[in-house]
């Protein structure tokens, strides 16, 4: 409100007396800065760990990319137990399962009525099986969200490259989005390798990845069926690819990016995808897809190459710990089960996570700040140590550098610090440092750039009772919802 000097209007007088009665109520919440997540994107961030299940005819042909000429007769995972997949995922902390309903080879894991190249012509359950249904039912039973991967590139179809194929693809989306309950995430893979069987043509086909699929029309069709689905593609619009398949998000990781600068399949934008951009015009956070094995599909020869529990934990730190969501692939074997080796790593990973990040030593600590918004309790430092995502420490609008001091009451050893921004109002922090009170002086033990939904920094183990977080640059007043020490 702008009031000219010396002239107090009736409205202003009312404001003054009301603010006298209730000082805190007058402190306005910070305005959003830049793009903000939709409720569905926010729920996606909160999952933190997401799982991929790559399963198809490749599991039987020992390939990563089937050519498209494989006989459906090869598919017979006689002991398939999607309940096992879901139970293991649930028990090891994953929140969603995304199934490859159709990979690039075109074989469909459900009895679609639009092609013969499917499970209905396989020996599995004498052609009566439906693995999409088994997986979605298992997710429901174990309280996991369900997602689908339907490869746009199809090396089996004779009509691939023509408009007919787009109709085919959309028909299949209709089946998947109307027959299996809520689908929370849809994966549009950008891979378009060129050569394939294509109904016997056995040739190389090139499509224009930007125009051929007419994504706007396809997405709007899906949204009409399920408005809250999150779309993954290199370019979003829901979530973006992180630019590599090694499990590593950028140390600087903005949830914002400008869609004009990227589209699915565009080459040479991996670095941009990895970090996002500070001034990006849309909220399109990075999803870190990585496999527990070297390949995406099961290969016996990789049984000795399953990532260890420690490797998975390290990947957790470079994905979830950098403000992204981890999408870890666990491929069922030829029985149709998660392999014992993979299961062992998953439970081991969860044990390390519980051991390393299970007990927040800042819980119940006292906190003070160099500045807090309007001196109102609603924005005070304590909100950053109350373990709630709904409250936050905020500074006054003009204050973009500030410190938060946490006193845990006793000297303890810390190995990690975890920070979270209140991203509902946009991502803000550009850089920060962490200090501990040691020998009567502040000693810097860590520094970082972005925070976003979550940032975890591994420290050289340090003993201290007091920790200070200094926000050294921010797009606007910083909003810190949680700081934890482990
Ligand atoms: C890639 C595909 O080509 C791989 O086979 C796998 O599905 C991975 C998740 O995405 O683009």
TrEMBL record:
Residues 367-474 form the F5/8 type C domain. Coiled coil: none annotated. GO terms for molecular function: alpha-L-fucosidase activity. GO terms for biological process: fucose metabolic process; glycoside catabolic process. SUPFAM superfamilies: (Trans)glycosidases, Galactose-binding domain-like. Residues 44-348 form the Glycoside hydrolase family 29 N-terminal domain. Its EC number is 3.2.1.51. It comes from the Bacteria. Pfam families: Alpha_L_fucos, F5_F8_type_C. Residues 1-25 form the signal peptide. The keyword NAD does not apply. GO terms for cellular component: lysosome. InterPro entries: FA58C, Galactose-bd-like_sf, GH, Glyco_hydro_29, Glyco_hydro_29_N. Keywords: Glycosidase, Hydrolase, Signal. PANTHER family: ALPHA-L-FUCOSIDASE, ALPHA-L-FUCOSIDASE-RELATED. Belongs to the glycosyl hydrolase 29 family. This is alpha-L-fucosidase. It comes from Niastella populi.
């Amino acid at each position: 409100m702008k009031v000219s000097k010396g002239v107090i209007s009736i409205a202003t007088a009312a404001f003054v007396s009301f603010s006298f009665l209730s000082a805190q109520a007058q402190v306005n919440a910070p305005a959003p800065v830049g793009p903000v997540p939709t409720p569905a994107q926010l729920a996606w961030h909160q999952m933190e760990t997401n799982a991929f299940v790559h399963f198809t005819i490749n599991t039987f042909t020992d390939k990563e990319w089937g050519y498209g000429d494989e006989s459906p007769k090869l598919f017979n995972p006689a002991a398939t137990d999607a309940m096992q997949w879901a139970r293991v995922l649930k028990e090891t902390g994953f929140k969603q399962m995304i199934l490859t309903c159709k990979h690039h080879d075109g074989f469909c894991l459900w009895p679609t009525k639009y092609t013969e190249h499917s499970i209905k012509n396989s020996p599995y359950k004498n052609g009566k099986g439906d693995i999409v249904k088994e997986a979605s039912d298992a997710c429901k039973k174990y309280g996991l969200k369900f997602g689908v991967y339907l490869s746009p590139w199809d090396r089996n179809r004779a009509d691939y490259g023509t408009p007919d194929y787009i109709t085919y693809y959309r028909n299949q989306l209709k089946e998947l989005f109307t027959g299996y309950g809520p689908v929370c995430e849809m994966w549009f893979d950008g891979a378009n390798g060129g050569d394939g069987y294509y109904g016997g043509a056995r040739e190389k086909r090139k499509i224009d990845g930007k125009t051929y699929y007419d994504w706007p029309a396809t997405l709007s069709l899906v949204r009409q069926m399920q408005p809250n689905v999150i779309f993954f593609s290199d370019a979003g619009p829901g979530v973006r690819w992180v630019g590599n398949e090694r499990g590593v998000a950028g140390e600087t990781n903005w949830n914002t990016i400008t869609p004009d600068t990227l589209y699915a399949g565009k080459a040479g934008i991996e670095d941009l995808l990895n970090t996002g951009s500070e001034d990006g015009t849309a909220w399109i956070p990075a999803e870190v897809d990585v496999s527990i094995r070297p390949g995406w599909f099961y290969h016996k020869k990789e049984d000795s190459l399953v990532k260890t529990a420690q490797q998975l934990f390290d990947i957790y730190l470079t994905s979830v710990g950098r403000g992204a969501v981890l999408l870890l692939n666990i491929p069922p074997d030829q029985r149709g089960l998660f392999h014992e080796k993979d299961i062992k790593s998953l439970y081991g990973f969860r044990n390390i996570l519980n051991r390393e990040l299970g007990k927040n030593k800042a819980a119940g600590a006292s906190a003070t700040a160099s500045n807090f918004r309007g001196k109102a309790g609603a924005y005070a430092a304590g909100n950053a140590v109350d373990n709630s995502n709904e409250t936050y420490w905020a500074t006054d609008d003009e204050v973009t550098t500030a410190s938060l001091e946490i006193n845990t009451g006793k000297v303890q050893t810390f190995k990690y610090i975890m920070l979270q921004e209140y991203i509902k109002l946009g991502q803000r922090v550009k850089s920060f440092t962490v200090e501990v009170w040691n020998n009567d002086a502040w000693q810097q033990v860590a520094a970082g750039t972005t925070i976003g939904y979550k940032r975890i920094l591994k420290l050289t183990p340090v003993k201290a009772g007091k920790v200070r977080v200094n926000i050294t640059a921010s797009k606007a007043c910083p909003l810190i919802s949680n700081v934890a020490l482990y």
